[in-house]
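<context>
A single protein, sequence plus fold
<entry> Chain with its tokenised backbone below
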Amino acid sequence: MPLLRLASEPPPQTRKNPCISTPIILFLDQRRETVEHPLGTIKQWMNQGAFLMRGLERVRAEFSLTALAYNLRRVLNIVGLPDLIAALQA
């Protein structure tokens, strides 16, 4: 993994405390926690490795179906099947 630091920052070996994170690293860590966790969860729960389709439009369609299945599964876990059927019939 490449080292990310500001151009004005000294290398970690010359800093007093090399474990202190820079604002950029903190931002990237927060982004990873926010975005990559749901995507990783979806891929793990649905046993989806690499995309089977090629081309942006087809990959978007494939992921849309995966996201739909993931959301339906969550609804079933949160609401339950009888309540979901009742809500769909209403």
Q: What stands out?
A: The chain has two domains: 1-45, 49-90.
